[in-house]
Each structure stands twice: as C-alpha cells, then as structure tokens.
Amino acid sequence: MIQQIRNLIPKPVKRFLRYWVTYPFFRLSLWRNVRYDQKRFRTWSSADGRPDQKIQLRSWINADYHKIEKALALRKPRPGFGTAVVLRLLENLELFQQQYGYDEICLIALNTLNNYLAFNEAQDHSDPRLSKRIEALLAATTAEALKSTGGGTIEIQRETIHQKSKLDLREFFASRHSIRQFAPDSVSRELLEQAVRMAQKTPTVCNRQSPKVYAYDEPSDRKRVIGCQRGNGGFGHEIPLILVVTSDVQTFFAVGERNQCWIDGGLFAMSLVYALHSLGLGAICLNWSVEKHFDQELHEVADIPASEAVIMMIGVGHLPDKLTVAQSCRKPLEEVLHYPKTSREPQLP
Ligand SMILES: Cc1cc2nc3c(=O)[nH]c(=O)nc-3n(C[C@H](O)[C@H](O)[C@H](O)COP(=O)(O)O)c2cc1C
C-alpha cells in the first residue's frame, strides 16, 4: 500500500520532500559538529589572551622568538625593531622560568635574544632597558646549555642549498602510491623515528610545531585504533604500524587560527608520508573526516589528549615483493593551475 502511494508521487516532488525531511537533520548535525570543533578551540587555544597552560605559554614564547629571527633574516632589519614583541617575550620568559624552569624552546629564545642584542649593538642602537633584562635571563642558564641548541639566524650559500636539493623528485613523487598490501614484517622504531625526524622539518605557523604522532604497533592496540576508522576494509588487518597524526590546539592563540591545526597537521602528514616513502616503506593515509562521536571514541581508544585534533591516520609497513596499487589518475594540469587576470583593464590617461 505504502509502496503504491510512493509510486504515485512524481519524482521531482519526491526529491523535494526528501530534501526538506533531511535538511533539518543536516543543519542540526552541522551545528553540533561545528560546536564540537569550536569548543576544542575555545577550551584549549589561548585566543582569549590568557596563556595559562604551560604549552600555551611556550607557544607564545615560540611565536615571539620566531618573529625576531624572521625579522633578523630580512635583507635590512630596522635597528631597534620589534620592541613590543621583545618586551612580551621577556615577560613570558620570566614567567616561564619562574614556573617551570627553562626548557629547549626557552634556550632557543635566549639565543635569539642574544642575536638581537648583537645586531642592535652593531647598529649602535642598544637599549639598556632591554639589554639588562635579557642579560638577567641569560644569567639563569649556562653558556653550555645555550650552545646545545640553536636560535637566531645562520648564513647559508646558494651553492649549498642547490647541492643538497639537487635530486630528481619527479620519479620519487611518481613512485609513491597509497599502499593497501603489506609484508608481514614489523617496522622498526629506528625507521619510524628517522621518518618523524624528517617530517619535523615541515613548516608550521610561526614554527610553533603543533603536529604530533602516536604510533601503535602492538597487535591489540592496532586493532582497537584501526577499528575506529572506516576506510580500511580488506587491508586494515595487514597494516603492521598505525600512526595517528594530531595537531595540538594549545599552540594557537588567535581566532584567525581556528583552522590552522588542519593546515599544519596536513602538511606534516604529507611530509611524513614522503619520508616513509624515501625509507622504502609503504604508507596509506586513512581518512579522519568524521563526526563528533567517532572523534571522541578515537580520542579515548587511542589515548589522545582532548586538546589535540586528529588530522588523519597513516598505515605503514614494508612492501611485499609484488603488489597491486590503484592508478588514481590525476586531473589535467589546466584544471589545477590557473593564471587569473587579477587587475582591471589599465585605465588610459
Ligand atoms: C587525507 C586522506 C585520507 C585518505 N583516506 C583513505 C582511506 O580511508 N582509505 C583508503 O583506502 N585510502 C585513503 N586515502 C588514499 C587516497 O585514496 C589516495 O591518496 C588517492 O586516491 C591518490 O592515490 P595515491 O595516494 O596512490 O596517489 C586517503 C588520502 C588522504 C590524503
């Protein structure tokens, strides 16, 4: 009977009705999920201007020292530049030192401040107020500790960059495939650590380095973690190492950065995939575009802090001697690369 009534309704009317029945559910689900992302950002970022967690304070220090090294790397830095940034950095370093003692980021910041002092002195532009506070902070550590890290700028020759980057990457890029067949051998921690170290060179906003990697190689852990993901049917059980790439929202401190975790995390994940490829391993990105309840489940199962957004999983393993991969053909270049005309027609005088 119901079927008969259904058959009587014309198709466009059916489509119209279906749309308006599902639309409120879509709006509700979108609202809930946006609120979920918003709550994480509100709770864990310091966009409210109060970096009261250790990682948040560290992130301000990180961003500010990097602002100084960036300015020092300009062709002609302005003598005495960035006083407001330097003052904020000094205040945050003093606070951090009192509360937690110096860590590596603080040492990098101190080296950068040292460079800043040296630059200004060389330009006959010393500010005794700043020098005094910087020297007091430097006195709380040792020359040896400062030497153990970097910070500031370095001079580099074009020839050095060219020598080290002269590789034909076309073959390298073309030979990476998403791998869905793995050899049973486990992946050593040395290889994984090498790949993550390589991926750490990925650029991040103000060098704040929000991305993190969680590695699961025990069979029961792997099973639990991969069990939360929906796109590994038929091969998930073969993956010897599951990685979860996350991005720590505590490193962000402005509303404009509300989507930055996906950008920094996505760039990092890509580098990691290429690093694994360069080490002869196979890898597959595993989607984590999910709704709130799946995300909460993974955080719990994989023991990931609530302050971190999950970017994606990556399945990793050694390659079997012979395997089949999807061709995954790419769009024509013209669909991707555009040369838009940005200006209006030139006005004739
Ligand atoms: C963020 C992201 C999520 C992905 N998720 C899945 C997934 O869940 N399952 C899967 O089989 N492939 C997944 N892939 C792999 C894509 O299907 C694959 O990268 C694309 O087809 C291009 O193929 P190629 O990597 O072999 O060049 C994902 C890729 C990316 C970048």
Gist?
Helices cover 52% and strands 9% of the residues.
Output the keywords:
349 residues, alpha+beta, NADH Oxidase, four-stranded antiparallel β-sheet, 52% helix, 9% strand, globular, binds flavin mononucleotide
Can you walk me through this structure?
The chain is built from 14 helices and 4 strands. The protein is of the alpha+beta class and 349 residues long. It folds into 3 domains: 2-44; 54-147, no CATH class; 167-318, NADH Oxidase. Strands 1-2-4-3 form a 4-stranded antiparallel sheet. α4 (83-100) runs parallel beside α6 (128-139). The site of flavin mononucleotide has 10 residues, from β3.
Write the H/E string, N to C: HHHHHHHHHHEHEHEHEH
**Structural category:** alpha+beta
Radius of gyration: 26 Å
Strand content: 5-15%
Mean pLDDT: 95
Mind summarizing the main beta sheet? Answer: 4 strands, antiparallel
CATH architecture of the largest domain: 3-Layer(aba) Sandwich
CA-CA gap between termini: 76 Å
- Share of helical residues: 40-55%
Number of DSSP helical runs: 14
Q: How many strands in all?
A: 4
Identify the CATH homologous superfamily of the largest domain.
NADH Oxidase
Unreliable residue stretches: none
Briefly note the CATH topology name of the largest domain.
NADH Oxidase
